Amino acid sequence: MDFFARQAATRRQSRWMVFLFVLAVLAIVIVIDLVVVVTVAILSVQDDGGLLATPDMSIWRYPTIILFSSLVVLGTIGISSVARTVSLAAGGSKVAEQLGGTRVGADTADPLKRRLRNVVEEMAIASGVPVPQVYVLEREAGINAFAAGYSPANAAIAVTRGALVNLNRDELQGVVAHEFSHVLNGDMRLSTRLIGLLFGLTVIAMIARTILRFVPRSGGDSGRKGGPAIAVIIVAALIVLALGWIGLFFGRLIQAAVSRNRESLADASAVQFTRDPTGLRNALVKIGALGAGSRFSDADAEEVAHMLFAPGIQRLFATHPPLEQRIREIDPGFQPSEFETVRRRLAEARGAEQEEAAARTAAGAARAGGLLQGAVVLAPAAVAGLVANPGTEHVLQAHEVLASLPESFRRAARQPEQAAALFLALGIDVVPEARERQLAFIREQYGAEFHGAVLAMLGEVDALTSVQRMPALLQVFAALNQLGRAERVELLKCLNGLLVRESRPSVFGYALRKLAQVQLQDNLDPRRRAVGHLGVHGAREELQVLLSILAAQGNEDEVAARAAYDAGIERLLPGIRPPLLRVPHWPPKLDQALTRLDRLQPAAKEHLVQALVTAISHDGRMTVPESELLRAICAVLHCPLPPLYAAA
Amino acid sequence: MGWILLLIIVLLALFAIGIYNGLVTARNAYKNAFAQIDVQLTRRHDLIPNLVETAKGYLAHERQTLEAVITARNAAVSGLKAAAANPGDPAAVLQLAGAENALTGALGRLFALAEAYPDLKANTTMMQLSEELTTTENKVAFARQAYNDSVMGYNNRREMFPSSIVANMFAFQPAQLLEIESAAKREVPQVKFT
Predict the structure, then answer these.
(1) Per-residue pLDDT for A297 more than 70?
(2) Digit-coded pLDDT (tens) for A171-230
(3) If DSSP states are collapsed to H, E and C, what string results for A278-300?
(4) In this structure, is the dihedral angle defined by the CA atoms of residues A131, A132, A137 and A142, taken in order, positive or negative?
(5) Which helix (H) or strand (E) element contains residue A102?
(6) What is the total count of domains within chain A?
(7) Do A111 and B131 touch (CB under 8 A)?
(8) What's the CA gap between B175 and B189, in Å, rounded?
(9) Using an 8 Å Cβ cutoff, are B154 and B29 in contact?
(10) Once rounded to an integer, what is the mean pLDDT over residues A335-355?
C-alpha cells in the first residue's frame, strides 16, 4: 500500500468512525429515554395511589419528557466532545503533558534522553517530517510510546521511561519509526480526534463514577436523617453508571476498530523507514518477555489506548493485534519460546550488574585501607609520561580511591540536588569562624532546607583524607551537569561567594573553582574553542607568575621553592631564567596568567605541563596541594589529565 | 508549406526547452540533497578530534590506531571540501565515498580496541561522543537515501530518450551515487595477530 492509498484508507476509516459514533450516541439516547419513561410511568402510577394499576408504557404519552431527556443527553455528549477537542487544539504536546510527560529539549544532557532525541531527529530525516516535540513519560515502567497531534507540525512523540531503559538503540529506533509512520500517514490526526469523541461517550460513566466517589459509604448511615436521600442518590448513580457503560462499550469498540489494522501498517512502514526489521522485532519480543510488558499505570491511559505502540490495557476488544502475530509479520520464523530466553537473559544481565557493583564496593574498601595510610605525601613517579596517558596501574589506583569513598557519597553524586550540596560542602573552610560565615551565606542564598543538606554533607566531607577530596569532587560533576543553565550559574555564584569568605586562599578552593568553571560553564557554551597560536616567549611573564606560585604553594621553605622554580623555568625558557616572584594575593594573578596561557599553541602547552611536572617533582615528591594545583591548571588549559595518585 | 515547417521547428524548440528545464531542476535537486549530507558529514568530522582526544588518555599504546583515525579524518575533510565545491563531479564524489569509508574503517578499529578498555568504554565523554557519532552516521545514511534517489531521477532523465538528446547537446554530466558505511553499526572486525 503506498502513501496515497493509505491516506485514502484513513479517510474511509474516519467515515466509519463517525458512523459508529453516531450509532453509539443514538443507542445511548434511546436507552436513556426508555429508562426515563419507565421511571416516570412508575412514579405517576404511584401518585395516582392505585398500586395495582399497571403503568401505561405507551411512550407517546410523554413526548415532552422524551424530547427533554434526549436533548440533555445529546447536549452532554456534544458539549463534552467539543470541549475536549478544543482542549486538544494545541496539538500532541497537550496529550503528552496530561499523561505526565516531561519534555526533552534539544540540549538535554541525560544520556538516555539524548539518545531518544537523536533517534527522533534521525527518523525525521528518514521520513521527511519536521522534528516533533519529544516527551518522556517518567512514571511508566512498561515499554510503550505514542504519537499525538493534528498535523506533523504540532505532533508530539512520547516514550515511556521503561522503553528508554529497557530498549537498546536499534529497538528504540524501531519503536520511534513506528510512531513516525502514524505521524506521516494521517493516522495520528484521526487518533487525536478520536480522543475528543471518546470523551463524549464516556462522560456519562465518568459523571456517575465521580458521584459515587463523593457520596459517603452507606455502611452505618441508613439510620440517620440523610440516609434515604443518600440511598436514592446512590441507586440513581448506579443506574447512570450502568447506562454509561453503553458509551464505554461503544467507545472501546470504536477504538479497537480504528486501531487494530493500522498498528500492523505502522509496523510495516517502520521497517521501511529504518531498513532494518530487527530493531522493531526485538522491541516487540522484549515487551513479551518483560513482566511489566507494555502496561500503562496512568488512569488516563483509557483515552489514548488506541494510539499506543503496544496494548496499554488488557480488555475484551483488543486495540492491538496479538504480539506474536505482529512479530511474525516482521519475522515469519519467530518462535514464542524466545520470550522465555530473552526473559532469562535480561534477568541474568541485571543480576550480573548488581553483583559487579557489590564486588566493587567490597574489594575497594578492603584494598583502599592500605593505600590511604601513607598517602598524604605522594610520589611523583614518572608523572611526565602520564600526562594524558594514564597507565593501567594508575587507573586501578584511581578506582581504589574512588571505591574508598563512603557509599552515601556515591549516592549523592548521582543526584543533582544532593550533588550540589556536596559540591558546596567541599568548598567550605576548616577554620571555624570562616566556616560560620560561609554557612550563613548559604542559608541566605539558598534557604534553610539546602543549608541543612550542606550541613549534613559537611560531616562526611570532614572525614575525608586530603587524598580523597579531589576524587570526591570529580565525581560530583557528572550529576551537576544535569542541572539547567540558570541553576549552574547560580551554583557557581554561590561557590564564589563561599570562597570570598575563606580564611585565606586555599589551593583546594582554587582548584574547586577552576574545575567547576571549566566543567560547568564550558559545557554551557560548547562553541568550538579556537586553537591558540601563542608561543612560549609570547607569554614569558605569565609563565614566570605561574611557576612562582606553584613553587611557593608546593614547598614550605624558600630555598626548596627556589630550586623547584629554577628547575621548571629552565625547562621552559632555557638561558633566560626570569627570577622567582613573590605573589602575596595569588588567586587573581593566577587567573590572569592562566587566561592568557590557554591561548598557547598545543605544543607549547605540552611543554608547559612537562615544566610544571619538573618543578613539582624536583624534590622527589608530589604533595597534595601540588597535585591539586596541577589538576586545576591542566583543566583551565584544556589538557586532559588522568587521575594522579600515590605510586607505592 | 513554409509556415508548417516553421510551426514544427517552434514546437520542437519549445519541447527541447521544456526538457532542458526539467534536467536543470533535477540537477539542482540532487545538488541540494548533497548539501544535506554535507551538513552531517561536517558534524561527523568535527566530532572525531574530540573522540581521539578522549581516547588518547586511555589508549597510550595504540598511537598508531589513533593516528590512522586522524589521517583518515583529514583525508575525508578535504574530500568533502572538494565534493561540496562541485557535487556534479563524479570523481570528487567517488573520492569522498572512498575517504569516508576509509574513515569508517579506522573508526571501526578504534571502537574494536575500545572494547578491551572497560574504563574507556565507561567514560561518560566517550559514551556521549559515540552516541553523537552514531546518530550523525544514521543521519548521513538517511540523507544519503534522499540524495541517491534524486541522483537516480536525474540520471534516468539524462539517459532516457528523447531527453538524452538535449542532455548530450548541453553536456549534462552523469551524477555519482554515494555509498558510505557507518562505523558504529558495523560488526566488530576480527583482529588477527600475525
Answers:
(1) yes
(2) 999 999 999 988 887 788 888 888 888 888 888 888 887 877 776 654 444 445 556 777
(3) HHHHHHHHHHHHCCCCCCCCCCC
(4) negative
(5) strand A101-103
(6) 2
(7) yes
(8) 32
(9) yes
(10) 82
Q: Do A389 and B60 touch (CB under 8 A)?
A: yes
Quick one: angle between helices A466-480 and A624-636, nearest 10?
A: 30
Residue that finishes a domain, picked among A435, A470, A504 = A504
Cβ neighbours of residue A30 closer than 8 Å, sequence gap 6 or more: none
A127 min Cα distance to partner chain B (Å): 9
B109-161 pLDDT per residue, tens: 888 888 788 778 778 888 888 888 888 888 888 888 888 888 888 888 888 88
The boundaries of the domain holding residue A206 are: 90-352
**Catalytic entry in A97, A138, A171, A179:** A179
The answer to whether the Cβ–Cβ distance between A111 and B56 falls below 8 Å is: no
Strand partners, A156: A133, A148
- Give the whole-angstrom CA distance, residue A280 versus residue A290: 15
Digit-coded pLDDT (tens) for A373-416: 333 333 344 444 444 444 444 444 555 666 677 777 767 766 77
Whether A179 is a known active-site residue: answer yes
Contact A122 B119 (CB under 8 A): no
Instruction: Fill in the amino acid letter for B122.
Output: A
Looking at residue A444, its amino acid is: E
- Could you say which of A475, A504, A533 is where a domain stops? A504
End-to-end distance of chain A based on CA atoms, in angstroms? 71
This prediction's pTM: 0.58
Asked if A405 and A269 sit in the same domain, the reply is no
Alpha-carbon gap, residue A588 to B101, rounded angstroms = 50
Contact, A208 vs A237, CB < 8 A? Answer: yes
What's the CA gap between A634 and A594, in Å, rounded? 10
Per the domain annotation, does A552 fall within a domain?
A: no
- Nearest CA to A130 among A172, A180, A187? A180
Q: Which of A118, A121, A478 is facing B124, going by the closest CB pair? A: A478
Asked whether the predicted pLDDT for residue A127 surpasses 90, the reply is: no
Residues in chain B: 194
Per-residue model confidence as pLDDT tens digits over B8-67: 999 999 999 999 999 999 988 888 888 888 888 888 898 888 888 888 878 877 788 888
Nearest to A122 among B36, B54, B135 (CB): B135
A614-to-A221, A394, A617, A624 alpha-carbon distances in Å: 89, 19, 5, 16
Give me the interface pTM, i.e. the ipTM.
0.71
Q: What are the cell numbers at A464?
A: 575525608
- A63-78 exposure pattern, b = at least 16 Cβ within 10 A, e = fewer: eebbeebeeebeebbe
Model confidence at A49, in pLDDT bands (50, 70, 90)?
A: low
Distance of CA B102 to the CA centre of its chain: 13
User: Does some domain include residue B181?
Assistant: no
Is A404 in the same domain as A348? no
| Nearest one of A153, A180, A334, A144 to A268, comparing CA atoms | A180
Within a domain: residue B34?
A: yes
